[in-house]
Amino acid sequence: MDQAELVGLLRGAVDAEGGRWADLGAGEGAFTLALADLLGPGAHITAVDREASSLRELEEAMVKRFPQTRLDVKKADFTRPLALSDLDGIVMANSLHFVRDKRPILAQVKTMLSPGGRLIVVEYGANRGNPWVPHPFSYERWEQMAAEAGFENTRLLGTVPSRYLGSMYSAVTYAPRTTTAD
Ligand SMILES: C[S@@+](CC[C@H](N)C(=O)[O-])C[C@H]1O[C@@H](n2cnc3c(N)ncnc32)[C@H](O)[C@@H]1O
User: Fold this and answer.
1) CATH says 3-174 is which class?
2) Where are the domains of the chain?
3) How far apart are CA 72 and CA 47, in angstroms?
4) What is the whole-number distance in angstroms between the Cα of residue 139 and the centre of ligand 1?
């Protein structure tokens, strides 16, 4: 995917410049860089991945291409507590499909977002996995999972053809603005 396609998959959910974001399972940062492009100077992004070498590549690329973006990298397992909070947005691109039971991580993501903060997922449009993409979920299934996890206003942002599993989509969903008393 080129930069225009990467940016295109996120664009519909990024309506303000700057802000505090995280990319969970950032890898070498294809979508972290696209996010930096969209957020412009002044953005603060934390990239989380368990592969230190990928994060080093991302750091080098960010300095070269978007030197005004503040990037923190965190070598960590995103299914464990991450000590991140009050985020305007979180991106999970091709990373949530590594988790079989997504409920605990979605609950955690919700606590990391500020009220009304958004989660953007980029995923393959399939429900049957393979050794490389073990637990994918179609957009239809994502709508259900996001609602069950207490997110709101889920919508499809875009789709692109993919050599693997046919297609890839991006979608956004929002943490509630108000909490309800139980
Ligand atoms: C397929 S790559 C996607 C990278 C990038 N988001 C992209 O779309 O180009 C998945 C990444 O998620 C990371 N990852 C998977 N499970 C993880 C976990 N539990 N904690 C941290 N990183 C994880 C892998 O190390 C890998 O870099």
Assistant:
1) alpha beta
2) 3-174
3) 6
4) 19
